[in-house]
Amino acid sequence: MSEYLSVARRMWHQLEPLHATLYFAPEARQVASDLGYDIASRWPSYFAWRTAPLGAAGPELVAATYYSFSPRMVARYVPQIWTTADPAKVLDARLLAMDRVLTALLGDRLSAAQLAEAARLARQAAENAGPAARPLAAANRDLPWPDAPHLVIWQAATILREHRGDGHLAALLTSGLDPCEALVSFCTVGAAPAAGFVGRGWSAQEWSDARHRLAARGWIAPDGSATERAHKEREAIERMTDRLAAGPWRALGHSRAERLGHLLSPLVGAVFDAGYLPRHSTLGMATLKVRYP
Prior knowledge:
mainly alpha
């Protein structure tokens, strides 16, 4: 069992950067601008790109499925984003954006045969990502598969990261953390800097209140540091997240999952070499260590 938990975590490290290029790559920003979105801030296109599979969702649904964003912040952009472009146009545009992004990144890093193999394996994993209680993963699974192998890889990566993300929210709920507390506890254990979450829209008072609630539960010490309980609880959340994300990789099998990771490595390396992603991630990939036997 633990073998697939570690596989799920390793594959998240490979697939998350591929998906996230949509939100940061200059090619994607240009497509968003052509569609009519203001790209002075990344948030209008972010909400449009990520929400479009749900249809013309309103602010309550978006806040519920995103969880860690302040509902006030969500309401600044949703449903206004749909007056710029309807979800069907956004879905077409995000595939156009990723076609340009990935074509630029790929170069000759993978042969046509390797690309086709990676697409086949990634799709098999994504098709085994169970949709029950996973709205963002299910919404992306409902979309037709593109023909081009590099776009199949991106769509599979998107389904799998949203599948993992939906499971992570279940783990947060089970732990009793509300949306703001989830972020505060994450920062307190040193997984990511608090400054990285300013864009989520929580006020200083809401952040302070969340810290007080966590302190009352024994998560934050009088000096403001994370307690041992906080570290244990956050690791338990990560373990639960891995457990809930393991299904697609168990279905794919260890050797094929490892093969997919090997095939994707040059492309993931190209993403980091291009410098598209923020230097300080809010995901805690480099800092959260979860060990399995």
